[in-house]
Write a structure and sequence with these properties.
76% of the residues lie in helices and 0% in strands. With 268 residues, the chain is mostly helical. Helix 3 packs parallel to helix 6, helix 6 runs antiparallel to helix 10 and helix 10 runs antiparallel to helix 11.
């Protein structure tokens, strides 16, 4: 792949933001409100019961990690939709740009915007609610990497769905993080789910992350169970990433063969 062409795809997204800074609101303002709202909820919950863990650490920390994963997924989808809405899609396919380079440019765009949002959330949570992101040290990094890889996989898959069904399919992409949070155990242990839903949860890499973090915050150590969870979550996330990329490429080749790419200008 040509790094210059990948950078060009990324740079185009930056120019779009510079041309219309209102786009920043969609990227970061909701994160700001989400952290503030859940920060106050966590503080309120902390006034009840005899919990052995800090609600700010567990609840607000879970929200920040989940929002990070959602931003990665949405970042890829939004960058793809920007090209559809601006009817720039044809220009890419009239250039030497390869589809893999285009996809890599979208992923880099999502990484940059998600990381900026992530830092903003940590700073606000730390300054406003005393949240310490590094409370478990560098062991937080494997958790973040699983969520990051899974977020990229979801973003590529949803982009592939939109590529296959047309621009109107974007509405299938927006609710996915909310639906996924039911099974991922973001706010509660997987054990509270019915048995059938626990099976579904076992297929979601994020569920291994949040279960492991709960074990650590409730006084457990980074032992064999947590290591097993991380290994399982990592394997699933990488498998989904490979499957999502394969799916996207299959859709691209199909659209190219049947001439369906033209609909992305006609349906805007």
């Amino acid at each position: 792949m040509n790094l210059t062409r990948i950078y060009a795809v990324f740079l185009r997204q930056i120019y779009l933001i510079k041309a219309n800074p209102i786009r920043l609101a969609g990227m970061f303002v909701w994160l700001l409100f989400s952290v503030i709202q859940w920060g106050f909820i966590s503080k309120y919950l902390g006034t009840f019961g005899q919990a052995t863990f800090g609600f700010v650490t567990v609840v607000l920390g879970a929200i920040i990690l989940w929002e990070f994963m959602g931003r990665v997924q949405a970042g890829i989808m939004m960058a793809f939709l920007e090209d559809i809405w601006s009817q720039n899609f044809f220009n890419y396919f009239a250039s030497p740009l390869k589809i893999s380079e285009y996809l890599a440019g979208l992923v880099i765009t999502s990484i940059v915007t998600a990381l900026i949002g992530f830092v903003i959330m940590i700073l606000i949570a730390g300054a406003g609610f005393g949240y310490n992101f590094f409370i478990i040290g560098v062991m937080i990094l494997p958790f973040i990497m699983i969520l990051f890889v899974f977020g990229v996989a979801m973003g590529i898959f949803i982009t592939g769905v939109i590529f296959r069904l047309g621009p109107a399919a974007e509405w299938l992409g927006w609710p996915i993080p909310f639906i996924m949070s039911i099974f991922a155990g973001v706010f509660y242990p997987i054990s509270v789910l019915p048995d059938a839903l626990q099976v579904v949860a076992g297929l979601i890499p994020a569920s291994y992350v949040f279960e492991s973090m709960r074990i650590i915050f409730e006084g457990g150590e980074f032992g064999a169970r947590v290591a097993s969870n991380l290994a399982g979550g990592t394997a699933l996330a990488l498998a989904y990433l490979a499957a999502a990329y394969y799916f996207f490429m299959r859709v691209y080749k199909r659209n190219l063969k049947h001439g369906n790419i033209g609909r992305f200008s006609a349906e805007v």
